[in-house]
Amino acid sequence: MHSTQVSVRTAALVAAAALAVGGCATMSEEQKSGTAKGAMIGAAAGAVLGAVTDGSKGAVRGAAIGAAAGAAGGYLWSSRMEQQKREMEQATAGTGVAVTQTADNRLKLEIPSDISFDVGRADIKPNFRSVLDTFADGLKRNPAARVTIIGHTDNTGSDAINNPLSINRAAAVRDYLVSRGVGIERIAIDGRGAREPIASNATPEGRAKNRRVEIFVAEQAS
Asked: What does the buried/exposed string (b/e) look like for 82-119 if buried means 16 or more CB atoms within 10 Å of the residue's CB?
C-alpha cells in the first residue's frame, strides 16, 4: 500500500474512533474505552475493504461505517452492566476471580478451579456460592442480559472424561443460578474440555489455571 493510502487510512481510523466515543457524552471512561476498542477494530476492517474497492475515499467511508458497527459490537454496555461489573469486583476481591469488560462489551468472569470445583468434580464449592449469589442478584436486576457459561479442564485424562466434565461444571453453575431465581431460558452452557488452555499443562500450576469456568454476560444492542 502507498504511503498516501496508509496515512489516509490512519486518519480515518482515528477520526472514526473519536466520533464513536465523542458521541457518547454520558459514558464513563471505562465504557468509552470499550467502545473505542470496538470502533478501532471495525474501522480498520472497513478502511481496508474500502481502500481495496474505491481507493483513499473508500478507505475513509469504509472506516466510518466499520467504526459504527464496531462501536456497537453487537452488545450494549449499559449502566446496569457497569453496575454489575462493580458489584462483582467487590464480591470477588481477593478470590482470584477475574472480572473484565471484553472488547465487544460483554462482562466476563473467569473463575479458577481453587474456588469453583475440586479436581475431577462438578460440585460447586461452598465459597463459590457466595460469588454466584451476588451474580444472580445482579442478573435479576437486569432482565435484558443473557448469560453464557463455559467449562474447561486441564489435559489430565482423556477427552471422553474431560468433555462431559467441562459441560457438567457449566451446567452446575447454570442450575445454581436458576435456583437463585434466574430464568433458565436466559442461560446457555458449553464445555470445551481441554481444548482451550490459558497456561501450560506441563506444570501443576498451569493445569490449575486451565481448570476453570468462564461466565459471559451480554446485553444485546437494539
From this structure: bebbebbeebbeebebebebbbbbbbbbbbbbbbbbee
Nearest-angstrom CA–CA distance, 29 and 50? 30
* Element counts in the chain: helices (H) and strands (E): 7, 5
Tell me the pLDDT of the chain (222 aa) as tens digits: 555 544 544 544 444 444 444 444 444 444 444 555 555 555 454 444 454 445 555 555 554 444 444 454 579 999 999 999 999 999 999 988 999 999 999 999 999 888 888 888 899 998 899 999 999 999 999 999 999 999 999 999 999 999 999 999 999 999 999 999 999 999 999 999 999 999 999 999 999 889 999 999 999 876
Quote the CA–CA distance of 92 and 135 in Å, as a whole number. Answer: 10
| DSSP helix/strand/coil, 181 | coil
Q: Sort 75 into a burial class: Cβ within 10 Å, 0-12 / 13-18 / 19+.
A: buried
pTM across the whole model: 0.68
Domains of the chain: 3-72 (no CATH), 79-219 (3.30.1330.60)
Cell of 205: 500450576
